[in-house]
Amino acid sequence: MLIYIIQTILLMKIMIPYLLALPILGISINSSGANSPSVNVTQQTTQEQQRVQVDIDDLPEKVKASVGHNTELAWKILKAYLVTNPDQTTFYDLYVQKPDGETWMKVDKEGKVLN
């Protein structure tokens, strides 16, 4: 009897964190009857963006001008990626060097800064 109680307590200690995590993971347990629980799993499928590295010299002039690339008081583009979203819209993800450090910027093909 004592072994059964200890096993039950240990099992509860193991299972409680997992049961508490179910809502965070998007899993819900619904009871449709006293003896027939059912588990509904919610999945979200997202398509990923495609990133292709672009040579800095091949960037559109409007994109380079938006950060003032290679001008005296401007930021220097260190890396550039063309990003294609699942809806086929595109933007450039630029890694730029500023006087106070480096950062990432998103710029559309017309040179409009998106972030």
Give me a quick take on this structure.
The chain is an alpha+beta fold and 115 residues long. The chain has helices spanning 2-21, 61-66, and strands at residues 27-31, 37-41, 50-53, 76-84, 90-98, 101-107. It folds into 2 domains: 2-41, no CATH class; 50-107.
Class per helix and strand makeup = alpha+beta
Into how many domains do the coordinates divide? Answer: 2
Number of helices: 2
Q: Per DSSP, what share of the residues sits in E-state strands of 2 or more residues?
A: 25-35%
Shape: elongated
Total beta-strand segments: 6
| Largest sheet geometry | 4 strands, antiparallel
The run of helices and strands is: HEEEHEEE
- Give the uncertain stretches in residue-range form: 36-46
Percent helix: 10-25%
